[in-house]
Specification:
Layout (H helix, E strand, L loop, with lengths): L2 H24 L5 H50 L5 E2 L9 E4 H6 L18 E8 L6 E8 L5 E7 H4 L2
Length: 165
């Protein structure tokens, strides 16, 4: 083997390694282009994630209203089964508006408290369950209405079966 050429090759390789090492040792941070690329990528991810999260939150609020309405219907069903007297809710004709108010169900112990309005501050402003019975069978229907903390209709004249759809 040719010793002087091998030494020159090794020296050249050593110089190249030394330069590469010096370059990496002197590199202390990110370039502006690298930082901008990261910011753009984060912006794209945020643009995709924010609407998706917004729809998930909206869906969960609707499901919370439905769950609250089903709880109120169940409380009214128990109150009716136990013979609690029906009261007029002043929502229609005298024959068809008898049922239970949220406050009445709380007072009688069928609800621990008036449920919280998931879209507002605090509890539902008002709510009632109209108890109706069929003239041809022994079926009893329970129709719930819940008004939000600001007076907005959250659930309007919904039955258990329509809430479960």
């Amino acid at each position: 083997m040719n010793q002087p050429t091998d030494d020159i090759k090794e020296k050249g390789e050593m110089d190249m390694l030394k330069k590469v090492r010096e370059r990496f040792v002197n590199e202390k941070g990110f370039t502006l282009v690298e930082l901008l690329a990261v910011i753009v990528i984060l912006g794209i991810i945020a643009a995709i994630a924010v609407p998706a999260i917004g729809s998930i939150i909206g869906d969960s609020k609707e499901k919370a209203h439905t769950s609250n309405a089903l709880s109120v219907i169940e409380a009214a069903r128990l109150a009716n089964a136990n013979g609690e007297p029906l009261t007029s809710n002043n929502v229609g004709s005298a024959a068809s508006d008898e049922g239970y108010t949220l406050q009445g169900l709380v007072s009688a112990g069928y609800l621990d408290s008036i449920p919280s309005d998931p879209q507002g501050d605090g509890q539902y402003q008002s709510g009632y369950v109209v108890v109706g019975s069929s003239t041809t069978s022994n079926d009893v229907t329970y129709t719930v209405t819940l008004k939000g903390s600001g007076g907005e209709d959250r659930i309007t004249n919904e039955t258990k079966s329509s809430l479960n759809e």
